[in-house]
Design a protein that fits this description.
The protein has 133 residues and is of the alpha+beta class. It has two helices and ten strands, in the order E-E-E-E-E-E-E-E-E-E-H-H. A hairpin with a 4-residue loop joins strand 8 (67-71) and strand 9 (76-80). Helix 1 (91-106) packs antiparallel against helix 2 (114-131). The longest helix has 18 residues, at 114-131.
């Protein structure tokens, strides 16, 4: 369709989305940015947040935990560490993950991987926040 561009979203384990988009709103490390047709080519990183796709079918929102966006003249590719459609989020599971991450961070144990626990906490909070919007 006119005004749309090919969009591919992949994770290390799957192809999460392949289709057309009119716009992609993504959480960049310096804040949210939007890609429209004709956007200048770029490569940028993602931080945890909400990724929104708009196309002729409407609007779809996903949580992402980080990754990269590559904008080329003919296609946009999102390489996401993890991605989950907001409507599919199990809030109780996300709250349990938040609690586990907080326990690991507060345990004071030397063998806790603090960076991994913080990343788990960020993912859980991102998922919970997305369901409350």
């Amino acid at each position: 369709m006119a005004g749309e561009f090919p969009l591919v979203i992949v994770t290390p384990s799957s192809m999460a989305f392949e289709g057309e988009a009119r716009s992609v709103l993504a959480p960049g490390t310096d804040g949210y940015f939007e890609v429209l047709i004709g956007h200048v080519p770029m490569l940028t990183s993602l931080r945890p947040g909400l990724l929104t796709i708009r196309n002729d079918e409407g609007r779809t929102e996903y949580t992402v935990s980080g990754g990269f966006v590559e904008v080329l003249r003919a296609q946009v590719t999102v390489l996401a560490e993890t991605i989950e459609e907001v409507g599919a989020i199990d809030v109780e599971r996300a709250k349990q993950a938040e609690e586990r991450a907080r326990q690991r961070l507060g345990s004071g144990e030397e063998d806790v991987d603090v960076d991994r626990a913080r990343a788990s906490l960020d993912r859980a909070l991102n998922r919970i926040k997305a369901t409350q919007q």
